[in-house]
């Protein structure tokens, strides 16, 4: 990905063959490095403002202090100034894969008392109707 960003930026394609947003997203990992790119993802270019999603508040604060250096590096990698501002936003928390329940069959079968089990099944049927 990093090599492709450098190649694309150096090609100087006529007529803006690639949208600026795609160029910037491709150049992002090379401009900031693998470690930062793993924690902060360039998601959109709105005008001349790059929207970057970060994993947490700590990364957001740290990258905000490096904003000027990142802008300079992006311009170097792209060969021109496309981005003049960067907005660091917190990304939505990602849900980890959930394991399937190990219990098999009907959950009502785990109720020990037979009369409570029947009452539970009956109320569940009424709720579905």
What does this protein structure show overall?
This protein is of the alpha+beta class. The protein has a domain at 2-90: GMP Synthetase, Chain A, domain 3. Helices cover 50% and strands 15% of the residues. The chain has six helices and three strands. The protein has helices spanning 2-11, 20-32, 34-39, 57-65, 67-78, 114-128; strands at 40-46, 49-54, 85-90. The protein has a three-stranded mixed β-sheet. A hairpin with a 2-residue loop joins strand 1 (40-46) and strand 2 (49-54). Helix 1 (2-11) crosses helix 2 and helix 2 packs across helix 5. It is rod-shaped, with a radius of gyration of 26 Å. The chain starts with a helix and ends with a helix. The model has no long low-confidence stretch (mean pLDDT 84).
Weakly predicted, low-confidence segments: none
Helix content: 40-55%
Q: N- to C-terminal separation?
A: 54 Å
Name of the level-1 CATH class of the domain at 2-90: Alpha Beta
Q: What is the CATH topology assignment of the domain at 2-90?
A: GMP Synthetase, Chain A, domain 3
Number of helices: 6
- Arithmetic mean pLDDT: 84
Percent of sequence in beta strands: 5-15%
Count of distinct strands: 3
Sequence of secondary-structure elements: HHHEEHHEH
CATH architecture of the domain at 2-90: 2-Layer Sandwich
Radius of gyration: 26 Å
Q: Judging from the principal axes of the Cα atoms, what is the shape?
A: rod-shaped
| Major sheet attributes | 3 strands, mixed
Structural class: alpha+beta
* Biggest β-sheet: strands ordered side by side in the sheet: 1-2-3
């Amino acid at each position: 990905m990093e090599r492709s960003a450098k190649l694309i930026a150096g090609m100087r394609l006529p007529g803006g063959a690639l949208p600026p947003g795609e160029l910037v997203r491709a150049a992002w990992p090379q401009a900031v490095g693998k470690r930062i790119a793993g924690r902060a993802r360039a998601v959109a270019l709105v005008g001349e403002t790059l929207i970057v999603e970060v994993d947490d508040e700590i990364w957001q604060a740290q990258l905000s202090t490096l904003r000027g250096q990142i802008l300079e590096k992006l311009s170097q990698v792209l060969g021109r100034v496309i981005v003049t501002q960067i907005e660091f936003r917190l990304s939505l928390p990602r849900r980890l894969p959930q394991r399937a329940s190990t219990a098999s069959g009907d959950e009502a079968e785990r109720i020990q008392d037979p009369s409570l089990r029947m009452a539970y099944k009956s109320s569940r049927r009424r709720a579905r109707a």
